[in-house]
Amino acid sequence: MEEIRIECPDIFDYEQCLAYLKRDENEVLFDIVDDKIYRAIKIDDIKLLLSISYERHYLIVEILNDISISPENTERLVNFIEEWFDFSADLSLFYQYGRKNEILEPLINELYGLRLIRIPDFFEAISWGIIGQQINLTFAYQLKKRLVESYGEKMTFENKSYYIHPTVDVISKITVKELMDLKFSRRKAEYLIDVAKIIHSQMLTKDMLLNMEDKVEIEKTLVNIRGIGPWAAHYVMMRSIGVKNAFPIGDVGLQNALKAILNLEQKPSKEQMIALNKGWEMWSSYATFYIWRAPYIKK
DNA sequence: AACCAGGTACCTA
DNA sequence: TAGGTACATGGT
What we know:
There is one protein chain. About 45% of the residues lie in helices and about 15% in strands. The protein has 15 helices and 7 strands. The protein has helices at about 15-20, 70-85, 90-100, 105-110, 120-130, 135-150, 170, 175-180, 185-200, 205-210, 215-225, 230-240, 250-260, 270-275, 285-295, and strands at about 5, 30-35, 35-45, 45-55, 60-65, 155, 160-165. The strands form 2 sheets. It has a 5-stranded antiparallel sheet. A hairpin with a 2-residue loop joins β3 and β4. α5 (about 120-130) packs antiparallel against α12 (about 230-240). The longest helix is centred in the middle third of the chain and has 15 residues, at about 135-150. The N and C termini lie far apart (about 40 Å). The structure holds a DNA duplex.
């Protein structure tokens, strides 16, 4: 069996990352058993079933479905994992900056080593951004589960099923009614299928956004698409594009977490959010990710 | 039983 | 430009 070892960055806590990944029972794109992550992915059209575990500062990646892959594909696989766990970020810089902020300082201590878990698959990130709009996370996970199980590719290993997120190729060809049958609202069904068509036609690609210098330009490009507003644009920028200073200002979860941390009577206003963001501006994405975790820190 | 969920597009004035 | 509303459904 192939085994790949990936060295972790200095500041890295596998348990913190796992805790985030475990946040919902209905997650379908990976499974966690005994601190080992199981996930199906597709690389260069080859389906792989991976297990990922941690051992003395290395991630150990095993390919369970008895396939040997080329050196190029091994590199692609390593890139995927490193992107998923955001290994390229220099957390020492975030911490140095964030410790000066009274909201972030305790979070950095509690969550030390947590990395911003990314969504490398661009369409998966947009899909999740559209699904998550306005509804509670429980329902959002249910919708995603139905979408993935209906239209994603399935792998079976030792009597368990693993799914790969549906491709734009598949989703661009389905109907609004099919998604409404999965309890998507008509609007969300339209948004998702339309975005799939746009990406499928290459009018929008992840590379296109990665090559843009300016955050504002990326945001404008995303917001221009029906179904992606300011919140979803920033969400995709932080989770998939790797923008360091994205800030989903309208995010209710973020607002409620800040309300609790600051002991406010009401959720912070847009103006308050903008003011708070000044305290971590260069690192808004990480600040957001850490604040999202705040309600789950056990005292 | 209302009201709120990791919002957005669309309508009116 | 600003303000109001529908949207599908689950949790509290």
